[in-house]
Amino acid sequence: MAPKLRILDASIRVKLFTRKTPAPGKVGCYTLSVRRLIVNADDLGMTAGVNRAIRETHASGVVTSATLMASGAAFRDAVELARSTPRLSVGCHVVLVDGTPISEQNTISTLLSNRGAGPARFHSSISSVAARAMLQHFDPDQLVSEIVAQVKQLHAAGLQVTHLDTHKHTHIFPPILNALAQAARITGVPAIRNPFVPANSMRPRAFSRHPGLWKRYGQVRILNTFSLRFKEKMRRSGLATPDGALGVVETGSFDTTLLRQALTDLPNGTWELVCHPGYDDADLRLAHTRLLASRERERELLTSPELREFLEQQSIRLIGYREFAGS
User: Fold this and answer.
1) DSSP 3-state assignment of 279?
2) Domain locations along the chain
3) Which listed residue, 106, 218, 282, 310, has the most CB atoms within 10 A of its CB?
4) pLDDT in the model for residue 116
């Protein structure tokens, strides 16, 4: 072989090799063509039906991780599920809105909507929580204390908590993010969800045929202005976080077209698909959730052979948070 051809052949082989090999020493920094996807099911512990759906979408589908609600009605059932599925990465789905706390009511009074009147509850709407967070009406120490209490509830059940996220993505707002990061360090949790949608998934024409999502699209686009602050906070905290989240705009409206749209042309790096599989049963109807029939659709989508085949065609590798945080 001529010298120039040997050099060219060696160069091609080096390129082929390096395209498939993660760059060492830095979480979330990968060479070209490496795309990894964490599929995280939220609301583990909400109901027995939600738990069953998460088990099914993990065993027979593409779900690799789940986040458990410490105050969920089906918490004990969820713990047994987590113990029996060791390959499922289990994090804490921190609830600070539309739910009940773990801490004593008098120790977290600024976080509650009914101070001293009846059972303790958080504010029911995300807009109320956002306003109070940004106006600094929440005591920072009380936020940290409640988040730590929820994580420790999982630790007390014997679970290794691999990551944190928040119900309705409340850690988009900097005061709650600060508390979440501090609680992660206190409890030794290595990773936090990046709740911000990548720019290429926020193109207006992608949602032009889905008028039911226009309002949510606008809200998510505005909230994405906090993304740079989030990245800086994660860098300074030394916590692992994916490159962004998919499925935030589409929550409650996922179908095959929207799911494929979210995953097509996924940028290089590690991304998280946020999902909510479940069974639309009597228990779910009693829970505080707008996601009912949509959980059934997501369960079917996440267990479909066509989705796994599509991910293979797109050269997207499935991983869990345990693998991500330990890489």
Assistant:
1) coil
2) 23-326
3) 310
4) 65
